[in-house]
Amino acid sequence: MCKHILNAQVAIRAPCCKKWYDCPECHEEKADHPLKKSYEMVFACKKCKKVFRKDTREYEEADEYCPHCDNHYVIPAKTPELRIEVEGEQGDHRMIRDERDPDRARRADNSIFGNGQIGFLNK
Question: Which residues form the CHY-type domain (predicted)?
Answer without folding.
Answer: 1-71
